[in-house]
Amino acid sequence: MSIETILSILDNLEKLHKSLLRIANDKTALIKSGDIMGIDQLLKDEQAHIAAIVQVDRDRQKAVAAYMAGQGRPVPQNPSIAELIEVAPEPDQTRLLEAKDRLLHAIHELKWQNDLNQKLTYQSLQFVNLSLDMVRPRPESATYSKTEINGKKEMKDIPSFDSQA
Length: 165
What we know:
The protein has helices spanning about 5-35, 35-70, 80-85, 90-135, 145-150. It is an all-alpha fold. It is elongated and about 110 Å long.
């Protein structure tokens, strides 16, 4: 396996993460507008992207393992790009570092956007719960109130009995 193949896989991973970031940005707008159907569709698209990312990452691991084995190096169980950079020749190290940094930048942006979406969703749920609490009637207390316990209930609240009726 060549470094070019691994760089191509890393570029593919970066593109998939950036595409997932665009979906996350679209999701933010839909959360703000309250478009549940749109969010549902984006969640399906998001799942497809995640499945593709998992598959491409498996390909990356296989490519790194094949490269390391081809170099006569021991192959870790889950080979990483950092481990590949350590064993790669100098000109390839620079290219691999740049590709790794671009991918990490895309991942960090995606994480930030997903955190924002999570906070917006939580706030939306809080608003819905508050609205429901305002609309729902409050059940009357099944216990005595403090004034009833102390015997200071106002006279207008106590029904009177008209004995001359």
